[in-house]
Amino acid sequence: MPITLAAIKDQLDDKIGEEVLVIAQAGRKKITKRHGRLHMTYPAVFVVDLDQDENSFERVSYSYTDILTENIKIDFDGTSEA
């Protein structure tokens, strides 16, 4: 697992446009799984375009800190990235 925010961003920069599964903590004992495509990375956040068949909204953004603190996990093509 990358130990700096810059390393996380660099890894995600290489994956722009790829299919992604984001597993996020949504509460004490609840997780959400969202399928989509990595749309763009910005200095503090990255954006995922969601699959419209499964979700009622188009996009969601997450902070690189969410990956670092393990509040979310990202899976590209069945291989865990973070």
UniProtKB/TrEMBL annotation:
<dbReference type="Pfam" id="PF06257">
    <property type="entry name" value="VEG"/>
</dbReference>
<dbReference type="InterPro" id="IPR009366">
    <property type="entry name" value="Protein_Veg"/>
</dbReference>
<protein>
    <recommendedName>
        <fullName>Veg protein</fullName>
    </recommendedName>
</protein>
<dbReference type="GO" id="GO:0006355">
    <property type="term" value="P:regulation of DNA-templated transcription"/>
</dbReference>
